[in-house]
Amino acid sequence: MWAGVDEVGRGPLIGSVVTAAVILPDHYDLPFLTDSKKLTAKKRDYLASAIREQALAWCVAEASACEIDELNILQASLLAMRRAVEGLSIVPSGVWVDGNRCPKGLSMACEAIVKGDLTVPAISAASILAKVERDAQMDRLHKHFPLYGFDKHKGYPTAAHFVALKAHGALPEHRRSFAPVKAVLMQASLF
Fold first, then answer.
1. CA geometry: angle at 160 spanning 154 and 163, to 5°?
2. Which residues make beta-bridge pairs with 62?
3. First to last CA, the chain
4. Count of H-run helices and E-run strands, the chain
5. Interatomic CA distance for residues 133 and 138, integer angstroms
6. What is the pLDDT of residues 30-76, one digit of tens each?
7. Which pick of 16, 49, 62, 158 has the fewest CB atoms within 10 Å?
8. Backbone φ, ψ for residue 170 (5° rounding)
9. What's this model's pTM, rounded to 2 decimal places?
């Protein structure tokens, strides 16, 4: 029994990187299962609910913006993946990870699969759970800081995010090691 693992949120300037691990049963009813980026928000929400109901086990985990700043985004992503696998209620015999690297410290076999979120259903399911959770985090942040537009760009480095960052400054949740945030913080320290 293998688990699929994927992450969401390596590119944003703010918030955690979110990962999920999913063990699917041999038979499941999850139409449209694919990479989360290929789905509408409505389909992702529907599938996330169905995945949580049908999966033999699933876990969503993360690494915080502080951990990203301390470790770097790659190492923080791998840490969050390991946390998701270790959080499963069933220990898998192996894990398929989307991408080209496996997290260190796993107690089971691991296979990295480039574009696995398109070809391996368990990885697709993990991609969807991680994306739904990360988007929900950005929606909650938007409620507290609506001037930043997190409900629209989800923290990614868009023109609107750059404008808001320059106009209103960096929030505690911003990733200080990322160049655009670092530049805003340096600019603010000059005044």
1. 125
2. 18
3. 57
4. 8, 5
5. 9
6. 988 999 999 999 999 999 999 999 999 999 999 999 999 999 999 99
7. 49
8. -85, 140
9. 0.95
